[in-house]
Structure formats: structure tokens, C-alpha cells
From TrEMBL, chain A:
GO terms for biological process: transmembrane transport. The lineage of its organism: Bacteria, Bacillati, Actinomycetota, Actinomycetes, Kitasatosporales. The keyword Heme does not apply. Residues 67-257 form the ABC transmembrane type-1 domain. This is ABC transporter permease. It holds the Pfam family BPD_transp_1.
Automatic annotation (TrEMBL), chain B:
It is a multi-pass membrane protein. This is ABC transporter permease. One of its GO terms (biological process) is transmembrane transport. Gene3D superfamilies: MetI-like (1.10.3720.10). Signal peptide: none annotated. It is found in: Cell membrane. It comes from Streptomyces guryensis. The keyword Nucleus does not apply. InterPro entries: MetI-like, MetI-like_sf. Residues 83-297 form the ABC transmembrane type-1 domain.
TrEMBL record, chain C:
One of its GO terms (molecular function) is ATP binding. Its EC number is 7.6.2.11. The gene is potA. One of its GO terms (cellular component) is ATP-binding cassette (ABC) transporter complex. This is Spermidine/putrescine import ATP-binding protein PotA. Residues 9-237 form the ABC transporter domain. The complex is composed of two ATP-binding proteins (PotA), two transmembrane proteins (PotB and PotC) and a solute-binding protein (PotD). Keywords: ATP-binding, Cell membrane, Membrane, Nucleotide-binding, Translocase, Transport. Part of the ABC transporter complex PotABCD involved in spermidine/putrescine import. Responsible for energy coupling to the transport system. PROSITE patterns: ABC_TRANSPORTER_1, ABC_TRANSPORTER_2. The keyword Translocase applies. Belongs to the ABC transporter superfamily. Spermidine/putrescine importer (TC 3.A.1.11.1) family. It is an enzyme of class 7 (translocase).
């Protein structure tokens, strides 16, 4: 009886933790199989423990090259999308202008469009223009689909900002430029950072749009895709695991720093 | 006399902005580069695609706009099973995401206490591992000889799913079940995050108030919590359904030729068969169908404020 | 204009409209240098808009703003020698207390700010908190930072926009005295916007009561309270009993009025309305000026006092005083506050009583006004 009651009371917790398990199981598998020594070309079945792949992460032809291309694209796409998106967000929050609703839908639609549609239509554009597919077309596409996410993140932050802060700066002898640099920008920074981080993750991990517009350039996700056909090297799992660990450590440390700051309160 | 701010008549408020006389063009300069980017690389391609879909010709001789709408008809009549499958798989994945994601979002919002941040990190962190690598991991998890399949087999679950047509033989891989499972997994965070955002805004005292007014926990959930989380449910289902309907990665990696979705067809037509008009027509139909469904859904659920 | 008045704030015909809505009607106002001036009114009365026009945060639709001899009407806020303490303070969340206070100095290109900032933080008793962020301070401390941040620039005028609105009652009382002390110490003109009549009366030398974009009355707190000019001021500042009466005769400096069956005396100097014989006037008297005597002892009341008869409808004991509501033929809900010195046990609901007061405490208002003006606003704020 009491067991049943306990179950009833904690049903949500149990269900939630099961979902969490479902979410994390693949990462566990990726990590475990990064220590596998598979027979044959595919790394889907456990054979025996080995640290070979960790010792030689770039031991697979072209993999680290594709990784570096992905990182470069992600970096530039982040910079591009963040700058353009932040400008749009400020215009949307701070000014009244015509065609506001058109601008809003133009921001919203890329987020509501299946990737394959954007990928295919962008390819028709590039084909029609006779553009050379490769690094630049990928970068253009990535900036395009990251842009909206930056706008949303920055807009939320700027909107929640007390307009009196800027007025206070003006009241304290800061001209428009000074007000922007000393007050507006620092306060909007967390929103901009969130947008940039999201852009980086989206760009780095994008496969569908990239696959359509890459030509012969191979990004890391495309390398993984290809290897699913040709044979999956263990090194893929090494990269996957390392990315996961770096991400968790980064987020956790930033949270701990944030918590410390909050605890100093009063 | 300078009426600069076009404040609404009933705004005697301190919130009105300081006068900006010279700044009339500033918003347009701010908007210009980004909006131009979206027009050229998002809106314009849609037009090109629309035009491509009514062209005829061949790769060698080039294409011409001939208003050949028959392409649409041919594409639909040939690929309607893939369309239906896309909608069905995406819908199934969306429902599963909601069922799985809601308890977790609820847990984080109300029951996690000091574990809240850690769980949030664990929900977001998988994002940072390439989703293709994680999707490939499902090949291992659902492997024919693996523990999952043998457990399902022993429990006779596979008999049921076989009968339903979700699986076939003693396999899960290369069946609709595997594809839906992969879709659910891939888009689950997109469900959890908006759900969490809207649940987190709910004042915990509302639960106490409902309890105080004779509502049992389940009634409290149905009458108070769930209705208040509707914005999260709406944006979560959209964020899951839309990408799932256009996805072809899961169908390719976890499915078989019998589980091909419309994304697979578009990809093959564009990148392998190079039949651009058909591919463009299919893509256009998918876009139109999704926009239509989303519009109806948003109207019905009464939430306009998504951005 | 003598040099003595070189720091006066002069508003001439200043107004503000938003589309068809007029927030501030053309307004003339002079705030003498070194004074503590309060703009008092309910929310939406135009007091904050007026303040923001002085600060430069709002451009007037008409009229001019002068600081001493300098016209500043169209100067942007960052070029005016005026600083503001904002509602809910608007402290920069990304800067620590020191940098918040130093902000204005640094923007004006002053290099060595350390000594000045430290002195200013001492003045507001926050020397220890210099390196904390605003959110780490309590409401009262944040409020003092906001004051320090503005005062360090030694502005000609300090504008305070509901500076105590976010504080709880006890802290508010404390800060009222604190602000008053600071103002006396630095001698800068303070213009204070508030909806709290008690706050305005405690702190300011001069109060301007605003209503619907206009100044209703301007004067010292005692003036406004003892001799209001309009029903709005009478009701908004404290409580007033208002009786409709008819001018009967004049007797020297006094006017004799008919109200119900009785007569009331009103000094002519205390009447802001025209007093032609037979005309209507509203007679007002504050609840604490009235004495209550049981009807049985009506004969013992001194001659020459205004008197009204009635029956106690309700009484509530609140410690220092007892508040009675009296039903009277001339006024349905007459309020009387009696000090609890010698309580008459017979003064309970239902008892017949005589209300009487010194005619010198009576004031007269124009009867053409809404008798309840300003009542609703007070209740709204109290809620």
C-alpha cells in the first residue's frame, strides 16, 4: 500500500527521469562505443575495450579536415548572424517604422519552415545564378537560418530592459553613442551571447541545408553522414564524446559562477 | 512645437521614449543588411523554386518556364504515400514528444529543487553532440540482437507492433517504429524547452489555491496547470512537428525503403536524380501543406504570439 | 531677476499633448533656488510628465523651461545641469555601486573621481558597499545610491520621480527624513514628484497639487491643508467634511451662512468662492477640528462656535483617537476624529450629539465644483 502511494506521489518524477534517460541514452552509447574496437567497418556492436581511437583522434582520413571546416563556418556564421540579428532586434524593439509586420513574418518564417524546403529552394537559387557551391554557399545559408534565432534571443532581452536605464544614462551626461556603448550594449550582452551560442550550435550541427548547398565541400556532419554508408570509424564517437563533455563543463562552470554571484547577494 | 513621438493618445506614461528628431532613418539602416539577407537568401529562393516547379526541359538543354502544372499532379500521384507517411510519422513523434516531454518539463519546473540547473544542462547538452552521431547510436540500441529488441520480444510487444504494422519480423531497425523513435528522440528538447518556459511562469501558489478549493492533484493539473501551459504546448508541438515532417535523416539512417518520407524523396530528386522541377514541386507542396496546417493550428489554439 | 534667483526653475506656459490627449495644460511655475518643492497628484495627473520636461526626457508641446537665465527647453537631457532620481531607481545593473555613482562624472570627462565618489557614498552612508552590484543591496540602499548618483554631479536642480514609491511604509518614513537632511546639507533645489500627500507635506517647503494636467493649488503644506482652494485639494489632502450652504449675511470679516436649519460662520478671508447674498458655497471643516458633545449637555457649549446636530452612525476606536461617522441633516456622513483624552461613555452609535468647532477653522469653496473630487484618487492609492 505504502509502496503504491509512494509511486503515485512520485509518478511525475519517475516519468520525467525516464524521459531524461531516453534523452541521454544515445550519449552514453556514443561515449561507451568510443572505447570500442570494432570488427569490420561499422561501430555498432560491442567487441572489446580499447583506447586506440582516443590516442589518435585524427587517424581517419579527412575527418579532422571536415571538423575544421565546420568550426570555421560556425564561427563566421555566428559572427554574421549575431551582428545582423542584433541590429534587426534593436530596430524592432526601439523604433516604429513601416512594414513592421512584414519584417516580423520574414523573421518568423525561416523558423517555421522545414529545413529541406529552405535547402532545396536555396539550391535552386544558387543553380540559377550559377554560383559555385562550397564554403561560401554554406556560410550564406547558415547565416540565413541562424539570423532569426539571434533576433528572437536579443529581442527578448532588449524588450525586458527598463527604458529608464537609458534615460538615466542620458540624464547623467551620456550622449546617444555613450549611452549605447556604456549602458545598452552591456545590458543586452547576455541576450546577444545566447543568440551567438545558439547560432554556433545550429551552424556546427546543421546537416540538411548544408548537404544541399555544399558542393564538394565536406563538413563534419556530412562526414558522419557519409561514414554511415561507408563505415563508421570509432573516432566519430571520440569527437562526439569530447563535444558533449566540453559543452557540459562549459555550461556547468558558467552556472557555478552565476550561482556564486547570486549567493553574494545580501 | 514638435510632436516627435507618435505615442498613442492614451499614453500619459513615463515609458515614452525620449524625442528622436534625426533618427527617422535609423531603423531602416539597422534593418537593411539583415532583412536584405533574408530577402535574397530566403524569400527569393522560394520564388525561384516556385518558378522551377513549373519549368520543363532537361539538364542538357536547360529548363524553361512553361507553366507545366502537371508536374504537381504527377509528383503528388506518385509520391502521396511518402507525404502521408511524413505527416503520420511527424504526428506520432509529436504526440510522443508531448507525452514524454511534459513530465520532464513539469519535473524541472516544480519538483527538481536544487537539481533544476543540472537537469536543464542534461537536457540541453546533447545538442552539442552532432545529432547524426547520436542518431547512429540508435542503430546500436535497437540492434537486432541487442537487449532492447530481445526484451520486447520476450514481452511479446513485438507481436503487437508487428500486427499493427509498426515493426516486421523480429526487427525494430528498418521499421516505422525505429524512425518514429528516432524522430521523437531528435526533437524532444524542442518540446521540453518551450513547455518548461511556460510551466515555470506558473505561480506555485496556484497549485495550493486549487488544492485549497477542493481540487485533487489530477484535477488541479487538468483545470489549472495544463491550460496555463498551453502556449508552451502549442509552440512545442510546432517546433517538433515542422522539422519532423521535413526530416529525412532518421528515415534514412534508421528506416528502410518502406519508411521513406517526403524529405527523402526531395533529397533524392534534387541531389541524385537531378529532376529539379519535380523536386521543386514536392518541396513547394510540403511548404504549402505545412504553412496551411500551422496556420489552422495556431488559429484553433488561439495563440498568435509565437515569436 | 536678481542674481539671488539665478538658480530658479521657471516653467512658462509649458504643456504636453499626445495626439488628442493633453497630459499637461499650459502651466506657469517658478521653483525658487534651494527650495524643496513637491508636485503632488494622483497617477496620470501630469506631474511626472512635468518633471520629465524639466529633465529633458520629454519635449514640451509648447512653452519654455528656464534654469536661472538659461533657456533649456530644447536641450537634450545630457546637456542639462539637472539630474534625476528615477522611479525604481534605474541603477545600472552591470555596474557596481562605485561605478554607478561615478557614471556622470566620467561622462563629463573627469579623470580622478575616487575621492568625490567616496565622499558622496559617505554622505548617503554607503561607504562599505562601493563594490557591490545594485541587486545585492536592499531597497533603501538602492534608493540612496540613486540619490548619490544624481547628487554627485552637483546639479542646479535634483528631480525625484516617486523616489520612495517602492519602499515599505517604515523605510519610507525613514527615507523622508534622510532626504530632507541631505537637501538641507547640500542646499540644492529638489523637485519631488509623489502621489503620497503625507510624503509631500512632510518633506516639501512648497507643494503644488496637480489634477488632470493642471495645478490646482500651490502653497506651503499648512496652507494647503488648513485652507484649501478647491474640493479636489480639500479631499485629496486628508479628509474634509463639505456642507452645501447658502450665503445669508455678512458680518464684518465674517460671512454668515444658512445650512439646514442652522447658521454657520465663515471668515471671509478663508473663502475662495464668490460670496453674493443668496449664492451657494461649500463649507468645509477638517474632522479633527470638531468637538463632540452629547445632546444632553448642548447648553454647555461656548457661544460663537459653529454647531450642527446629528446622530452617531458609527464609531471606530483606533488608539490615539476615535473616529466617528455622524448622520446629520446637513451632511449625511460627517467625519469627526476625537482625541482619546476623556472619553464620554455615552458617545456610542445611536447617540444624539452636537458637533461644534471654532469658526476660524471653517473654509469656503466654490459650490460649482464636484463635491467628491479627489476622494476616489485617495482610496485608489490606499488600496
Amino acid at each position: 500500500m505504502s509502496v503504491l502511494n509512494w509511486l503515485k506521489r512520485h509518478l511525475v518524477v519517475i516519468a520525467g527521469l525516464l524521459t531524461l534517460g531516453y534523452l541521454l541514452l544515445p550519449n552514453v552509447i556514443v561515449t561507451v562505443f568510443s572505447f570500442n574496437k570494432p570488427k569490420g567497418r561499422f561501430n555498432y556492436q560491442w567487441q572489446q575495450f580499447s583506447t586506440d581511437a582516443w590516442k589518435d583522434p585524427c587517424g581517419v582520413a579527412d575527418m579532422c579536415g571536415s571538423l575544421s571546416i565546420s568550426l570555421q563556418i560556425a564561427l563566421w556564421a555566428t559572427i554574421g548572424a549575431t551582428v545582423l540579428g542584433t541590429m534587426i532586434a534593436f530596430a524592432l524593439v526601439r523604433y516604429r517604422f513601416r512594414a513592421r509586420s512584414t519584417v516580423n513574418s520574414l523573421i518568423f518564417l525561416p523558423m517555421a519552415m522545414p529545413e529541406v524546403v529552405m535547402a532545396a529552394s536555396l539550391l535552386t537559387l544558387f543553380l540559377n545564378l550559377g554560383a559555385q557551391l562550397g564554403f561560401w554557399t554554406i556560410l550564406i545559408a547558415h547565416i540565413m537560418f541562424c539570423l532569426s534565432f539571434v533576433v528572437v534571443a536579443v529581442k527578448a532581452r532588449v524588450m525586458s530592459m527598463d527604458p529608464r536605464l537609458e534615460q538615466a544614462a542620458q540624464d547623467l551626461y551620456a550622449g546617444p553613442a555613450q549611452t549605447f556603448l556604456r549602458v545598452t550594449l552591456p545590458i543586452a550582452a547576455p541576450g546577444i551571447a545566447a543568440g551567438a551560442l545558439l547560432s554556433f550550435a545550429l551552424s556546427f550541427d546543421d546537416f540538411i541545408i548544408t548537404n544541399f548547398n555544399a558542393g564538394s565541400t565536406v563538413t563534419f556532419p556530412m562526414f558522419v553522414w557519409g561514414s554511415a554508408q561507408r563505415g563508421t570509424p570509432v573516432q566519430i564517437n571520440v569527437i562526439g564524446t569530447a563535444m558533449f563533455l566540453v559543452a557540459v563543463l562549459l555550461v556547468l562552470s558558467s552556472m557555478i559562477i552565476g550561482n556564486r554571484r547570486n549567493k553574494q547577494k545580501a | 512645437m514638435a510632436a516627435v513621438t507618435e505615442a498613442p493618445p492614451l499614453a500619459p506614461a513615463p515609458e515614452t521614449k525620449p524625442p528622436r528628431k534625426r533618427g527617422r532613418l535609423v531603423p531602416y539602416w539597422l534593418l537593411l543588411p539583415g532583412i536584405l539577407w533574408l530577402i535574397v537568401f530566403f524569400a527569393l529562393p522560394m520564388i525561384y523554386q516556385a518558378s522551377t516547379s513549373v519549368q520543363t526541359g532537361s539538364l542538357e538543354e536547360g529548363y524553361k518556364v512553361t507553366w507545366h502544372f502537371a508536374t504537381y499532379w504527377d509528383a503528388l500521384s506518385e509520391y502521396w504515400p511518402q507525404f502521408l507517411r511524413s505527416v503520420a510519422y511527424a504526428a506520432a513523434a509529436t504526440v510522443l514528444c508531448l507525452l514524454l516531454g511534459y513530465p520532464l518539463a513539469y519535473l524541472i519546473a516544480f519538483r527538481a529543487g536544487r537539481w533544476r540547473n543540472l537537469i536543464m544542462v542534461l537536457v540541453i547538452a546533447p545538442f552539442f553532440t552532432s545529432f547524426l552521431i547520436r542518431t547512429l547510436a540508435w542503430k546500436t540500441i535497437l540492434a537486432d540482437s541487442g537487449p532492447v529488441v530481445s526484451t520486447l520480444h520476450t514481452l511479446h510487444v513485438l507481436d503487437v507492433t508487428n500486427w499493427l504494422g509498426w515493426t516486421s519480423g523480429d526487427r525494430v531497425l528498418a521499421t516505422p517504429l525505429a524512425v518514429v523513435c528516432g524522430l521523437t528522440y531528435n526533437f524532444l528538447p524542442f518540446m521540453i524547452l518551450p513547455l518548461y518556459t511556460s510551466l515555470e511562469r506558473i505561480d506555485g501558489r496556484l497549485h495550493e489555491a486549487a488544492g485549497d478549493l477542493y481540487a485533487k492533484p489530477w484535477t488541479t493539473f487538468r483545470k489549472v496547470t495544463f491550460p496555463l501551459s498551453m502556449p508552451g504546448v502549442v509552440s512545442g508541438t510546432l517546433l517538433t512537428f515542422i522539422p519532423a515532417a521535413g526530416d529525412y535523416v532518421n528515415a534514412e539512417l534508421l528506416g528502410s525503403t518502406d519508411t521513406r518520407m517526403i524529405g527523402n524523396v526531395i533529397q533524392t530528386q534534387f541531389l541524385r536524380i537531378l529532376d529539379y522541377p519535380t523536386a521543386a514541386a514536392l518541396s513547394f507542396i510540403l511548404m504549402a501543406a505545412i504553412l496551411l496546417m500551422v496556420t489552422i493550428y495556431i488559429r484553433k489554439s488561439g495563440t498568435e504570439d509565437l515569436v | 531677476m536678481t542674481t539671488e534667483h539665478s538658480g530658479d526653475v521657471r516653467l512658462s506656459g509649458i504643456s504636453k499633448t499626445y495626439g488628442s490627449f493633453t497630459a499637461v495644460h499650459p502651466l506657469d511655475l517658478t521653483v525658487p533656488q534651494g527650495s524643496f518643492f513637491a508636485l503632488l497628484g494622483a497617477s496620470g495627473c501630469g506631474k511626472t510628465t512635468t518633471l520629465r520636461m524639466i529633465a529633458g526626457l520629454e519635449e514640451p508641446s509648447g512653452g519654455t523651461v528656464h534654469l536661472g537665465e538659461q533657456e533649456v527647453t530644447h536641450l537634450p537631457p545630457y546637456k542639462r545641469p539637472v539630474n534625476t532620481v528615477f522611479q525604481s531607481y534605474a541603477l545600472f545593473p552591470h555596474l557596481d555601486i562605485f561605478e554607478n555613482v561615478a557614471f556622470g562624472l566620467r561622462r563629463r570627462g573627469i579623470k580622478s573621481v575616487k575621492k568625490q565618489v567616496e565622499e558622496m557614498l559617505e554622505l548617503v552612508q554607503l561607504g562599505e558597499q562601493a563594490r557591490k552590484k545594485p541587486h545585492q543591496l536592499s531597497g533603501g540602499q538602492q534608493q540612496r545610491v540613486a540619490v548619490a548618483r544624481a547628487l554627485i554631479n552637483t546639479p542646479k536642480v535634483l528631480l525625484l520621480d516617486e523616489p520612495l514609491g517602492a519602499l515599505d511604509l517604515k523605510l519610507r518614513r525613514q527615507m523622508q527624513l534622510e532626504l530632507k537632511r541631505i537637501q538641507t546639507e547640500v542646499g540644492i533645489t529638489f523637485i519631488h514628484v509623489t502621489h503620497d500627500q503625507e510624503e509631500a507635506m512632510t518633506m516639501a517647503d512648497t507643494v503644488a497639487v496637480m489634477n488632470a494636467g493642471r495645478v490646482e493649488q500651490l502653497g506651503s503644506p499648512t496652507d494647503l491643508y488648513e485652507n484649501p482652494d478647491t474640493t479636489f485639494v480639500a479631499n485629496f489632502l486628508g479628509t474634509s467634511n463639505l456642507i452645501e450652504a447658502e450665503v445669508d449675511t455678512k458680518n464684518g470679516d465674517d460671512i454668515v451662512l444658512k445650512a439646514g436649519g442652522g447658521k454657520l460662520v465663515l471668515p471671509e478671508a478663508r473663502c475662495s468662492a464668490p460670496t453674493t447674498t443668496g449664492g451657494k458655497v461649500l463649507v468645509g471643516v477638517r474632522p479633527e477640528k470638531i468637538s463632540l458633545t452629547h445632546a444632553d449637555e448642548a447648553g454647555e457649549i461656548a457661544e460663537g462656535r459653529n454647531r450642527i446636530t446629528g446622530r452617531i452612525a458609527d464609531s471606530s476606536f483606533i488608539g490615539v483617537s476615535t473616529q466617528y461617522v455622524i448622520d446629520s441633516p446637513v451632511c449625511p456622513e460627517f467625519e469627526v476624529y476625537a482625541q482619546n483624552i476623556d472619553r464620554d461613555a455615552r458617545l456610542v452609535p445611536g447617540a444624539e450629539v452636537v458637533l461644534h468647532w471654532n469658526p476660524a477653522h471653517t473654509f469656503g469653496l466654490d459650490a460649482a465644483q464636484d463635491i467628491d473630487a479627489g476622494v476616489a484618487e485617495v482610496e485608489e492609492d490606499a488600496a
